[in-house]
Amino acid sequence: xxxxxxxxxxxxxxxxxxxxxxxxxxxxxxxxxxxxxxxxxxxxxxxxxxxxxxxxxxxxxxxxxxxx
Length: 68
Description:
Elements: E1 2-5, H1 8-15, E2 24-31, E3 36-43, E4 47-50, E5 61-66
Antiparallel strand pairs: 1-4, 2-3, 2-5, 3-4
């Protein structure tokens, strides 16, 4: 498991949203190329948890939204 720090603008967006549980949010990440990752975990509104060998370029993220 790796943790990737989000960009400041992404952090500020998540800070204003409710937590899914104590200290974490479950999010959907949409990339500029249209790819989507669902059910991702963000800790303390700033650290994206990356499982396995996923390779994520945080600069290519279009939006981060709470999972419904």
